[in-house]
Design goal:
homodimer, about 200 residues, mainly alpha, elongated
């Protein structure tokens, strides 16, 4: 019988295994072993490794949504402070994994977007939604007079999502949070610097 | 007997297979099959898959060095034009692979830097050398009066290498070169904009 507790265990522990070792690098055997469930449980709950991968992305995305609600979409904070908090949360997440794992979305993008079209499409949706939250925050910053009204919020948001992915990747490679700190510094001192009257 | 022609074939064809399918995703069987050599050839020439991976990185890096010599370190071009040419070459490379493969260094960083310490260290060296070439180009731009003398060339170079990795990754995910074009536009219109007298 398929135990639903096994399903949750495979997903939550499996997400960590995939985050650390990569999607191709984490075998089904590794995942069930780490979750402490019988090997057959995996096939009881997931029709394929790709189906499991899609659910791992959704589980990680649920955490990302929570972070975005508390930062980028948190109307109680001044807009640019929300963006700073979002980048700081990214950094804290990297530190929690000893700067070894990077961003799960970025890792999937690097290794699985060519192999699985459903995974690639899901990642496109995820990045679009993160970008929309950043753009929402930037529009609030324009409205509050924190950045120049001439800022192209959508283009800048897409640039932020992309560059932050690069900083995640470099953090993982260098085992140092300097790339994220540098990104934040250059973003606020140059790209978002308000040269207007405010 | 170990044929040296097999070695070269395994490396050059294997680099393409790894670039497309990832390091973990490309099995030794896939590699020798694509190279059209006997399975035993691989173990004749490479003590491990990790040793093969390190040589793949070196082969790709030889191409990168050539590109850097023709662009970032090409003293015959005005400095910022060298940087533009370097980014354009990145874009051309992505288009050649139908925007499916991204940067081989970035892919290795995402999936293998946690698994193999020698691979991670080699990537750190590679990124350092690319960053040094970008910084060299930026210092020439300062000297030529193309950018502000207050520009921190080393920090900006590190930011460019990191953000370009992100743009490579997004290009691969979206199957569009827009992320690289957007990065170039924001880099030149904002971060490198000369607000001084020149």
């Amino acid at each position: 019988m398929a135990k639903s507790s096994h399903r949750e265990k495979i997903l939550s522990v499996g997400m960590e295994v995939v985050h650390r070792h990569g999607f191709a690098g984490a075998s089904v055997r590794d995942i069930v072993k780490a979750a402490g469930v019988p090997q057959g449980s995996f096939t009881n709950h997931f029709v394929s490794k790709e189906a499991f991968g899609l659910e791992v992305i959704d589980l990680y995305y649920a955490n990302a949504l929570k972070t975005m609600a508390e930062t980028l979409r948190n109307e109680e904070l001044p807009p640019l402070q929300r963006l700073r908090a979002y980048i700081d949360r990214t950094k804290e997440r990297l530190i929690r994994n000893e700067m070894r794992n990077g961003c799960l979305f970025g890792n999937f993008a690097a290794e699985a977007s060519e192999v699985s079209e459903p995974i690639r499409q899901r990642l496109v949706e995820v990045f679009d939604e993160v970008q929309a939250a950043v753009a929402h925050c930037l529009r609030a910053a324009v409205k509050a007079g924190e950045v120049s009204p001439s800022l192209d919020c959508d283009e800048t948001a897409a640039f932020i999502v992309s560059s932050l992915q690069g900083a995640n990747l470099m953090t993982k490679t260098l085992r140092s949070t300097v790339p994220v700190e540098r990104f934040k510094e250059i973003l606020f001192s140059s790209i978002l610097r308000h040269t207007g009257s405010a």
